[in-house]
Design a protein that fits this description.
Length: about 260
């Protein structure tokens, strides 16, 4: 049985003080749901404070991105070694970073390898545009993103990898793929691709999240699907009660 994982990606929201206050409120309310892995991804500035608050809890902290080099002349960037001891997970490949920062499949692959080498767990986001979806290119495009991101990773590495399917057309738009459609892509494209690369054991144990306008009102639709193991959530993770509802629904849906 795959442990459900709900990760709140706060993007460019919450000051350091707001972030610390938020997790102080969140932690006791999430305590009943220890069968779900719960992850918060604050801004880089807030990571130290949030990590300190959560250090003796089982709520995990994630960064929202990383560079692949350990150090160097990379103005504005944060390296994996700088994140060690502060976070357990790092989101890479988010469509906003691919679009706004020009990140490529090759860069995502370098980041995945660098994170794993530093004992950090990548949450690798993949997803297609509306045009690609409507043109019937989802399987080829998303499968290609998965293959590129995992190139050179071992089966042992995959035990520390999470993949998030986030269709670009459903991020921050209010649109969302139905549970059935999301499950078909996650199972029929992403998990199938991983099965081709690594075999049944890795494919069957890999956790794959859905992301894209996820909220408490539609969470059960996604969590009731057999191939969806959690959610990478944006806006709905910014309020305490909403985040708690997402985790509660995941626990109920997966029988934990």
């Amino acid at each position: 049985m795959r442990t459900p994982i709900i990760a709140g990606n706060w993007k460019m929201h919450k000051t350091v003080t707001e972030s610390i206050d938020f997790v102080k409120q969140l932690e006791p309310k999430l305590a009943p749901y220890q069968t779900v892995e719960r992850v918060v991804a604050p801004t880089f500035l807030a990571i130290p404070g949030v990590s300190e608050v959560l250090k003796n809890t089982d709520i995990k902290v994630s960064a929202q991105n990383t560079h692949w080099e350990n150090q160097g002349a990379y103005t504005s960037q944060i390296s994996p070694s700088m994140l060690q001891g502060l976070v357990e997970f790092v989101i890479i490949g988010h469509s906003e970073c691919r679009a706004y920062l020009g990140e490529t499949d090759d860069m995502i692959n370098k980041k995945a390898k660098a994170l794993l080498a530093h004992g950090l767990k990548p949450i690798i986001a993949v997803g297609e545009s509306l045009e690609q979806n409507e043109a019937g290119q989802t399987e080829a495009f998303v499968g290609g993103q998965v293959r590129a991101a995992l190139d050179g990773l071992s089966a042992e590495d995959m035990a520390n990898v999470v993949i998030a399917y986030e269709p670009i057309w459903a991020i921050g738009t209010g649109k969302n793929a139905s549970g059935e459609i999301a499950n078909n892509i996650i199972g029929g494209t992403i998990r199938k691709t991983v099965r081709q690369l690594y075999g049944d054991t890795v494919a069957d144990t890999l956790r794959i999240q859905y992301g894209g306008s996820v909220k408490p009102e539609n969470m059960m639709e996604y969590m009731s699907q057999p191939d969806i193991d959690g959610a990478l959530v944006g806006g709905a993770s910014l309020k305490v009660d909403s985040f708690v509802d997402l985790v509660r629904i995941a626990a109920e849906a997966k029988g934990n």
